[in-house]
């Protein structure tokens, strides 16, 4: 009798939707010395709550973006008509004075004026006052140019009249009804044309080949992927992780009820299963979820590495309210220390560790591919998806920029008498933390979906 119960239980476990989504999402991750369970505990209990608080602060909730750039690759059929796609930009008086007025580069003249007198003296002393204005400007220019060469993303011109502040808390990422051919087109062009993949190798589950797949395509695809160097494999997995994360948000904030008197967003389990159940995705779903964890680790690593930059006394989360700014800087540093304390990071010493010339070429390939992906975001028809797409690619691009600038960042505290060798703009900082906030939320949401699926049995 007992045996039967146990067997029944076993059957139930192995056959449930819960296990079909999560069976492979456990234990060690490939290319990485860490396991899923440790990440879950660390994120859900420690990091996620702190990060949520930080992202509600004024410094992080206002993001400036240009949502009106034309798509450089094809003519898009804009979805401005969809109600839930509309992004409500902020009116100027909603954005704190400090954010609007500073040009966010703390080495710029305006920023210097905002420092108090004491700091100003220190700062100018550090910058070397013997420089003529002309030389200093030239240095700034050079710095800008230099920076351009290190960029992984197109940064929207903050001065452009088309750029507007958006309050991220009032424009949450959620299901908008934007899907179908255009959505496919965006992701297809990213995977097909920007992930180093030759056309001859077909991605599993390409639209149109859904049910025809005999498993041959998958085998070809994964053996191609295995044959790639670790960096290009990593690149593909980051993009796949980002895609998974976005789909988790859309399933977790699905428009469940839409009537004239109320709108209700919430978890849609069947939407989640459609994306991640191994049976419904020919085995792809769990792999996507593993890539999400991989993305999480890469961004976590970048945060840990960026600590010395944010620790600089001259760095501020400037909004014009000194007490709050100081409090939020402390919270940010706590979060970064926490990221640093996580022991089982992806080992990126194996990245770009090969022949120096080859490594430089590879880094550049990856940078250019990523730059192109950020341009594709201007082709996303739905404005709300475009906003969050831009923010998340920019955040990931900033993370990559940090990871590839490790030496410059480590040198920062001692390099005060030279021009700073590493710099992040406010836009990069806001996107870095918000993008990571999205991934962190996704990991947290997986816990919800796990229990919802377990309830369904
Ligand atoms: C950039 O992306 C577009 C659209 O997917 C593609 O047609 C083009 O080949 C890509 N360019 C580079 C340099 O990767
Ligand atoms: C959940 O999503 C599916 C599509 O995956 C849709 O058909 C269904 O209506 C949604 N459920 C609710 C309650 O909105």
Q: What are the salient characteristics of this protein?
A:
457 residues; mainly alpha; two-stranded antiparallel ribbon; two-stranded antiparallel sheet; globular; disordered N terminus; binds 2-acetamido-2-deoxy-beta-D-glucopyranose
Write up what this structure looks like.
The chain has helices spanning 2-15, 17-22, 36-55, 58-61, 97-101, 109-114, 117-127, 133-150, 181-194, 216-227, 230-252, 269-276, 284-311, 322-341, 356-376, 383-403, 406-410, 426-456; strands at residues 62-66, 163-167, 254-258, 263-266. By secondary structure, the protein is mainly alpha-helical. The radius of gyration is 23 Å and the shape is globular. The protein has one domain (36-98, 148-197, 227-456). Helix content is 58%, strand content 4%. The longest helix has 31 residues, at 426-456. The strands form two sheets. It has a two-stranded antiparallel sheet. A two-stranded antiparallel ribbon has the order 3-4. The protein is built from 18 helices and four strands. One 2-acetamido-2-deoxy-beta-D-glucopyranose (NAG) is lined by residues 254, 256, 268, 270-271, 274.
Write the layout of secondary structure elements.
Elements: H1 2-15, H2 17-22, H3 36-55, H4 58-61, E1 62-66, H5 97-101, H6 109-114, H7 117-127, H8 133-150, E2 163-167, H9 181-194, H10 216-227, H11 230-252, E3 254-258, E4 263-266, H12 269-276, H13 284-311, H14 322-341, H15 356-376, H16 383-403, H17 406-410, H18 426-456
Antiparallel strand pairs: 1-2, 3-4
Helix pairs in contact: 3-14, 3-18, 9-15, 11-12, 11-13, 11-18, 13-14, 13-16, 13-18, 15-16, 16-18
The structure holds 2-acetamido-2-deoxy-beta-D-glucopyranose (2 copies).
């Amino acid at each position: 009798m007992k045996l039967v119960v146990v067997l029944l239980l076993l059957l139930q476990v192995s056959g449930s939707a819960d296990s079909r989504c999560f069976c492979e999402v456990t234990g060690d991750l490939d290319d990485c010395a860490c396991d899923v369970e440790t990440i879950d505990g660390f994120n859900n209990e420690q990091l996620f709550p702190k990060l949520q608080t930080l992202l509600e602060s004024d410094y992080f909730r206002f993001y400036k973006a240009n949502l009106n750039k034309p798509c450089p690759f094809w003519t898009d059929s804009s979805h401005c008509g969809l109600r839930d796609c509309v992004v409500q930009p902020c009116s100027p008086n909603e954005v704190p004075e400090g954010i609007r007025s500073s040009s966010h580069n703390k080495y710029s003249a305006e920023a210097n004026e905002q420092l108090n007198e004491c700091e100003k003296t220190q700062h100018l002393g550090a910058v070397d006052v013997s420089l003529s204005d002309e030389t200093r400007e030239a240095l700034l220019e050079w710095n800008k140019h230099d920076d351009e060469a290190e960029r992984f993303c197109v940064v929207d011109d903050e001065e452009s009249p088309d750029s507007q502040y958006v309050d991220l808390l009032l424009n949450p990422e959620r299901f908008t009804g934007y899907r179908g051919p255009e959505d496919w087109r965006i992701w297809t062009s990213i995977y097909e044309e920007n992930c180093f993949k030759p056309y001859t190798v077909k991605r599993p589950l390409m639209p149109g080949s859904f049910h025809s797949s005999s498993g041959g395509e998958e085998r070809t695809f994964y053996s191609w992927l295995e044959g790639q160097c670790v960096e290009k494999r990593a690149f593909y997995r980051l993009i796949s992780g980002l895609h998974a994360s976005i789909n988790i948000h859309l399933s977790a904030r699905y428009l469940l009820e839409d009537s004239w008197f109320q709108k209700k967003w919430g978890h849609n389990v069947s939407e989640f299963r459609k994306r991640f159940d191994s049976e419904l995705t020919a085995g792809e779903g769990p792999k996507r979820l593993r890539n999400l964890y991989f993305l999480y680790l890469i961004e976590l690593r970048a945060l840990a590495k960026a600590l010395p930059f944010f620790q600089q006394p001259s760095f501020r989360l400037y909004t014009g309210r000194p007490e709050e700014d100081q409090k939020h800087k402390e919270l940010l540093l706590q979060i970064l220390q926490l990221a640093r304390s996580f022991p089982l990071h992806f080992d990126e010493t194996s990245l770009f560790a090969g022949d120096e010339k080859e490594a430089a070429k590879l880094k550049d390939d990856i940078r250019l591919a990523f730059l192109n992906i950020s341009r594709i975001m201007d082709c996303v028809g739905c404005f709300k998806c475009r906003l969050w797409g831009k923010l998340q690619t920019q955040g990931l691009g900033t993370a990559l920029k940090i990871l590839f600038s490790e030496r410059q960042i480590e040198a920062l505290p001692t390099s005060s008498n030279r021009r700073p060798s590493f710099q992040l703009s406010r836009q990069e900082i806001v996107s870095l933390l918000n993008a990571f906030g999205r991934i962190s939320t996704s990991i947290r949401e997986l816990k919800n979906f796990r229990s919802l699926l377990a309830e369904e049995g």
